[in-house]
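task queued by scheduler; priority normal; single chain, no ligands, no partner chains; default sampling; output format set to structure tokens
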Amino acid sequence: WAGRRLPSETEWETCALTQPAMQWGDVWEWTASPFEPYPGFVPHPYRDYSAPWFGTRRTLRGASFATPTRLRSPHFRNFFTPERDDIYCGFRTCAL
């Protein structure tokens, strides 16, 4: 309705890595991408962590202020559901 859209995961990560002015990490950020494996994906040793949710969730990127420092990375992905109110998340938009 506002002539804007959520960025894809690729757009979000590219911007986070190449645009120093992009501030990320205060809240997880929603993307338009479904949570799916990347090419070359290898499941975490704890198999129930991500693979069961492929195709059923949207991807969030980045971190929040509550994320441990060792996990804060523009490469990190997460897969919460939108109705959860116990995570620190937000969004940024792109022009159409």
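post-processing summary
- The first strand starts at residue 4 and ends at 5.
- Helices lie at 9-18.
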